[in-house]
Amino acid sequence: MTSKTILILGGGVGGIVAANSLRRRLPSGHRVVVVERNAVHSFAPSFLWLMTGDRKPEQCRRPLKSLLREGVELITASANALDLPGRKVATDAGEIAFDYLVIALGAELAPQSIPGLAESSETFFTADGAVRLRQKLESFRGGRIAFVVASMPYKCPAAPHEGAMLAADYFQRRGIRHKVEIHLFTPESQPMPVAGPQLGQAVRQLLQSKGIEFHPLHSLISVDTAAGTLVFSQSAAGPFDLIIAIPPHHAPQLLRQTSLVNAAGWVPANPRTLETSAERVYGIGDVTALPIPGRWKTDTPLLLPKAGVFAHAQAEVAAARIAAEIEGGTPEETFGGDGYCMLEAGGGIAGFAAGNFYAEPTPDVRMQPAGKSWHMGKVLLERWWLASPGWKRESYAVLLRACGKMRGIRAAV
Ligand SMILES: Cc1cc2nc3c(=O)[nH]c(=O)nc-3n(C[C@H](O)[C@H](O)[C@H](O)COP(=O)(O)OP(=O)(O)OC[C@H]3O[C@@H](n4cnc5c(N)ncnc54)[C@H](O)[C@@H]3O)c2cc1C
Questions:
Q1: Which fold has domain 5-53+60-107+251-336?
Q2: Which residues line ligand 1 (CB under 6 A)?
Q3: pLDDT tens for residues 118-147?
Q4: 160: Cβ–Cβ under 8 A, 6 or more apart, which residues?
Q5: How far is the CA of 10 from the centre of ligand 1 (A)?
Q6: Ligand 1 centroid, distance to 376 Cα (angstroms)
Q7: How far is Cα 329 from Cα 26, in angstroms, rounded to an integer?
């Protein structure tokens, strides 16, 4: 057996799953190496609960090493340059040669790319940001709050709506909801547009039931920091006492100089096999731009949304295909486009959207009525994700699978 090195760039959702899946599938003679700049992994869906004070930071993070199977080599370093012809990556910890490469570098947040935004807004899109925002919410006595999606694309299409509803719930619990106006601005035409008009309408109704004013088709140009106003392409809104941003997302700088990326810097890959334009190089998760076949009355190609549930499933596919090839078999596993999302609505309830994003002629994604069980499902998912490989994690997986209705979750765990 010739030993192969499979190098995984990025140890977030996709990188962790790819590494563990490869380690499970391949004999120990092959190396599975993860390069990740952060030694600690944080579970992003919990940032919403950090914002509302329902979690402490230490409850949402684990040492990355503890989430990886024995035999996965973790290199805590920044990857700085990718040499595709030479099949090696330069990192802070030296050069690493690879036979197979899985790119799972995610998306970078770039609030500074919109004038005034970084100085005048808070965010729950990072753990530190969510902790700061929690303090802001705690000292908030009343006034106008704007949630704003600064630009497209962004990860987790549900998150801005969840953020606004959880903030509404937080003020309700404090008894000052009547003193707080909450607005949500987005450049999109409806909530979660890729999932279709019916789902968008269901989310709009949820927002409305929480007294949140939803403003679609608002493209942010800048923020007037002195006045506290949001300047959109065709209008302005404000003043606001607190601006909570979903900051612009950029593709990782490291990939910009390579032939792997499209004009926007994202990595196009085969939507089913996750193969990129380079041989034995796979792209998974937020870093990719994956066209989907379905479309909603538009000629613009739709792209698969950026979400952990997809990064997870794609990582399994890439790992299975690489392992099959190394073992001399024919890679058969493909990514089918299934996805799901528990949409936190506050008050201990959540909605559940699930379906197939590759369905034709349009994605087939449906929303279940909001209820307590979906919220419990999200809590279980968090516990399962943050448990180390072993019996505890398996126990959470059994519980999650037992949530029979949660199609998609059952496939993932
Ligand atoms: C508030 C919030 C709530 C969310 N809720 C949900 C949800 O409910 N459901 C859902 O499906 N998704 C959710 N998401 C989205 C989900 O977290 C992402 O889609 C998912 O993490 C993508 O996985 P990934 O592996 O592609 O990228 P990431 O998990 O972001 O991992 C990328 C990794 O690469 C590392 N990296 C980047 N550049 C370098 C470099 N040069 N060198 C070394 N390491 C590098 C980063 O440090 C990072 O750890 C949420 C996101 C947020 C912000």
A1: FAD/NAD(P)-binding domain (3.50.50)
A2: 10-15, 35-38, 44-45, 47-48, 78-79, 104-106, 124-125, 155-156, 159, 252, 254, 285-287, 306-309, 311, 341
A3: 999 999 999 999 999 999 999 999 999 999
A4: 147, 149, 154, 184, 186, 246
A5: 9
A6: 22
A7: 13
